[in-house]
Fold this sequence. Notes:
5 helices, mainly alpha, single chain, about 60% helix, globular, about 0% strand
Amino acid sequence: MSKLSQSGIPESSRSTIISSIIKHLIDGRDSEDKGSTNNNNNVKGDAASTVDDANKNIQSALSNIGQLSPTHPLVRRIQQDTGIQDPQLATQYTEQTVHAMKEHANEKPERMRSMFRSLRRKKGEGKDQGRDKDGSFLQDGYDSF
């Protein structure tokens, strides 16, 4: 049984919350890349593409989300994406999911990288028009959290 299934988060919301967190991290990374004045930071195949660095980057990105509160942009995004009205509940679910994702990134780093790659690829292809809100891009990844 997965950690998230024991968390009290409704099954129907779990994959949407995970999807929203990953999109939040990707959007933040994309805006950092666009804001960079040195284009050499964006070279594909750089050191960041190594396995160890990719694992650290995911862990670091999850850790850099910071202290969550009802006014945090990620919590607001999760409320919007899931339809959860209660900001405290959305904050709690987000905290639980981020924690589970950190553990998952530690225990099964390849699966976590695969989820990020899959969503980033679909976003790059312009296929992010709400189609993956159900977490279908996660395939069998999220249920093992």
